[in-house]
Specification:
The protein is an alpha+beta fold. Helix content is about 25%, strand content about 35%. It contains four helices and six strands; from the N terminus they run βαβββααββα. A six-stranded mixed beta sheet has the order 2-5-4-3-1-6, sandwiched between helices. A hairpin with a 7-residue loop joins strand 3 and strand 4. The protein starts with 5 loop residues before the first strand and ends with a helix.
């Protein structure tokens, strides 16, 4: 069990929109981060047209690491990215395992909020202090 309440990951606006609108429930990313069942995943809208704020959240129901081929085999229609986007993202990294998060209740926040710390492409763990700061902002 981790010592964190959740995790924030940056993601492009169009991918977040698709995931919410099409009820996608599997988030994948090359990452060494760990997150446990019951913890919360927050999505930070990044990219040129992104609001640069946390805009959505979900509860993690399962967390594992799989190679891209297994992700496609097991979750192809449930992943946030299209098949083409996933192929491009995983190109040249077929033997590397990805963080695979099965999610429940993916939804937009009522209002986008600032990240409670310095967010990088690697994501941001939510310790007690950051989690409370985020909750107060929501």
């Amino acid at each position: 069990m981790s010592n964190y309440k959740g995790l924030v990951f940056p993601l492009y606006r169009d991918i977040i929109e698709r995931a919410v609108e099409q009820d996608k429930d599997v988030f994948v990313k090359f990452s060494r981060r760990q997150i446990d069942e019951g913890e919360e995943l927050y999505l930070y809208e990044s990219g040129e047209n992104g609001r640069r704020k946390i805009v959505a959240k979900a509860t993690v129901t399962n967390s594992q690491h799989l190679k891209p081929s297994k992700v496609k085999e097991n979750y192809s229609d449930r992943v946030f990215q299209t098949e083409e986007e996933l192929d491009e993202y995983t190109r040249g990294r077929g033997n590397k395992e990805m963080l695979v998060l099965e999610l429940d209740d993916l939804e937009y926040l009522d209002q986008p909020v600032e990240a409670p710390g310095n967010l990088t492409v690697a994501g941001l763990y939510l310790n007690d202090e950051r989690y409370e700061k985020l909750k107060k902002a929501m």
